């Protein structure tokens, strides 16, 4: 008996697993591990939380769960002093400081800090979307994305801002929103020192410096910095214009373009000149208008009481009174009062199209045609 026991101990030390699960054939080195494992098959969860009645298979799992209610965070990061409920969470957090990314994608060699992040990443290559919404049938690569999507159906917004009563679906969104009231912009670009309220905004911004365009169109291979830009671009291939004006039925690719269009019907002019109080439909129109108020150089003509910024504006104004057109096209002899108008006119002869759409790379000779295309 003693000899058999000694033999068994030697086998365990050597790495042999002697205890076998009769249900799934999994092997264990110790009987107590097999006993704990069997609860998976029996669905036995004898450990109950007295606060929320949640059940657990192991007492250790209940112990860790209780920290949610007690808000106990016994594990501390020695670098930044951040606290964690679990040692595993601290271990993963430390990789931020060490830069360690032990999980490697075998296809594109991208590195990840967590195995779960690698698993989610692999769905990009496989095209697999295992998480399905039971309400509308839409599928997602990540369970967290599905969870966010479900809020559309439930309308649940449990997190409330104490200052403006705005409601949010997630606590992280409320936290980011609070920076609107505090003016806090804690995320700083190390290249140009620009600051941002959200870490996601900083992440997108850094792509300007790195040139990184991780979002690829599968139809034409064009690359984009942001997923939203790719989504908008895809509408060029599909012809989809999902945003419809309820007044005139005109459709648009982007919600922002529809929003600007609606000002035609509502007469809304949200952009106000702080100098004279004049209102404008678009920020670009206000920006152009503000040139009139620039204080560094002003010219006043007594005849019509107009105000101008640089002397070139003054000269152009005089030409309207005199009828003088000093700028001549060398190809067709047409005359113009402004050099800028002559420059635009020359694109007719040169076929130059200086206005380029960042979404589909289409070019235009006139800004007005370009603006119409963007709608």
UniProtKB/TrEMBL annotation:
GO terms for molecular function: DNA-binding transcription activator activity, RNA polymerase II-specific; RNA polymerase II cis-regulatory region sequence-specific DNA binding; zinc ion binding. Pfam families: zf-C2H2, zf-met. It is found in: Nucleus. SUPFAM superfamilies: beta-beta-alpha zinc fingers. Signal peptide: none annotated. One of its GO terms (cellular component) is nucleus. SMART domains: ZnF_C2H2. Residues 19-46, 47-74, 75-102, 103-130, 131-158, 159-186, 187-214, 215-242, 243-270, 271-298, 299-326, 327-354 form the C2H2-type domain. Keywords: DNA-binding, Metal-binding, Nucleus, Repeat, Transcription, Transcription regulation, Zinc, Zinc-finger. Its main location: nucleus. The keyword Zinc applies. May be involved in transcriptional regulation. Belongs to the krueppel C2H2-type zinc-finger protein family. This is C2H2-type domain-containing protein. It comes from Potamilus streckersoni.
